[in-house]
Structures
1.
Amino acid sequence: MQLIPFDNRKGLIWVNGDFINWNDAKIHILNHGLHYGSCVFEGIRVYNKKIFKLTEHLQRLFTSAKILDLEIPYSLREVEESTKEIVKKQEIIDGYIRPVVWRGSELMAISAKKGKINIAIATWSWPSYFSPEQILKGIKMNVSEWKRPPPDCAPTDSKAAGLYMICSLSKHKAESNGFDDSLMLDYRNYIAEATGANIFFVKDGNLITPKADCFLNGITRKTVIKIAVDLKINFKEEHLNLDFIKECQEAFLTGTAVEITPISSINDHTFEKRDVTKKLIGAFKNYVNQI
Ligand code: PMP
């Protein structure tokens, strides 16, 4: 697959109220978001021209921004309309949307309350590259050395760019050791999530997921829980120790980007079954196409 750099593409990006040429959507080097992490973002899917849970994602964007003390200079309705417009202008059928909010370059200091708050929305086509058979094979995960911080040490309820620093480090290390992704524990050593997705386990037909009390309670996570309950699959949220994985027959990740992705192994424990995972993948596909 040929990679097209994200700073050299055709089309438009919505930036602070205007549609500008993709390659002109630039920021200054002395940007507060870049230097001090004053930046939050979202990831949203477009399925067959329809934006999946747009309002829910934008509500989370506004909440994340508020947590980081970034006041978005538009209403949620205005951002919603602009998102719909950019998706139309870019002629997206199946794609991804990346809204981002950051503090500008007016002040170069930790304290930069008077720095301008910027917002941009980029979107691009993102059809599914893998066949259902390939997806069902699952991904290989290791366990990261980095721990998810406690809620009184980082804004864990937000989708803040700074929280991804340990995610990139974990994923890079996993990939350089032949894994696809990394499982992260939290500050108490409970299982938390992957580097950009939530995690579920299946033990004897029961669906179990870690309590989202120090990491992102994903919109896909909530959707999958709803679907599982509708399908009458027994479901529990619990604090889980790493040893718990040895009792499980199935595991999968959920997230806007990964949708539902089966896990084939975590370190040397393999997950041989896909029964509940397959059921949920099928029901999730129907769900995103209906909504
Ligand atoms: N955790 C992290 C760290 C993520 O980046 C994501 C992706 N947004 C998720 C979980 C899943 O969230 P969602 O289902 O809302 O995409």
2.
Amino acid sequence: MEYLDRLIAINQMLSSELELKPQLKSILSKVVEMLSCDAASIMFYDEDEELLNFSVSVGAESDELAAIPIPVEGSIAGLIFTQRTPMIINDVPKNPDYFTVVEERTGYQVRSLLGVPIIIRERTIGVLEGLNKIEGEFTEADAQLLSLVAAQTSVAINNAHIIEELQQANEELRQADKLKADFMAVASHELRTPLGIILGYATFLKEEAKGEFSEHAGTVHAAAMRLRALLEDMTNMNLLYTGATELRLRPIQIQNMIKTIFDDISQMAKAVDYQLEFIPPSQDLWVNADERLQKVFENLLNNAIRFTPPKGEIVVRISATEGEILVEVQDSGIGIHPNEVERIFAHFYQVEHHMRRRYEGLGLGLAIARGMVDLHHGRIWAESDGPGKGSTFKVLLPRFAI
Ligand code: ADP
């Protein structure tokens, strides 16, 4: 029962401590107690050197031991390692495989020894040893117990490897992410100046040139405007990377902000084909927000028009509870499959494959919207009864008391 308690204690420790060496050290302290022995140590196999190295020990001088590599051939630990089996040796000095160098260097005399292999996924990676039973000899029961501890130890080591790999992968991802953000910042900045020139001349040509040429200039102008919208998306994405530190918060009356966008969009040439409705709240509602929050509603309204066939209905509704404001942008358009309602918020995600796309865009609009809403401690999501059944995008924002 006592053993069981200690095994459970080891297990609890494994889940509570992440650093490997302190964990191994605590395991060894428990081993010494459980086996009633003098010292314990863990050795790991070094594949390059083909040697066993002390990693941690208790009851014996760790630093000194660490400097003494143990050969795989000509040592008891090496035998346990290659034969992958526990060994009890109660008269160590007489054993032909005893590697005497450790004793010569440290002065620590080994009388009896119990060692078991440490195996991770079929691969032996080291040896766990208990040394010098205080009274009597190491027994079969001790060996079984130590094998259990070795199995737990391998779990700890495995976890530590997985965590290390995860941390490394995380760091690589972070760097890739930063590279992407830096690239977007530089690209969007550098493209702005030449684009400004193209836009300026295209506007001039559109007005000054005659007939067909004016039309061509109009096409260039429209394309450059689209490019400008894309650049704006890239810049906004970058704001999301740099995060909340860049936000300039001030109280904004939400219905004014959204009504302005609604009116602008209602005046777009395409919008005349739609039945647009704006349902304001019954009272003034304020949010503490950056002006760029308006990008959220621009994107939602633009999408509502782009993904709704002409003659469709688009309703913007603003309401509130005591603490929150709800903005709904509802359309009677192409709708969204249940599998897609969450995915559409991912960067560069578009339901239609880009080669077959009827709708232009980068697939960034909703990612920007979500990022922006997150920065304002709100929530945004989509609801739809499925393809052809229209969609409603909902934005919940904390209400600012004025
Ligand atoms: P983009 O519009 O540039 O493709 P978004 O992030 O704004 O990027 O939208 C991602 C995808 O979500 C769109 O490509 C479209 O498939 C889907 N989507 C967005 N808004 C609607 C809507 N109102 N109705 C149906 N599908 C929509």
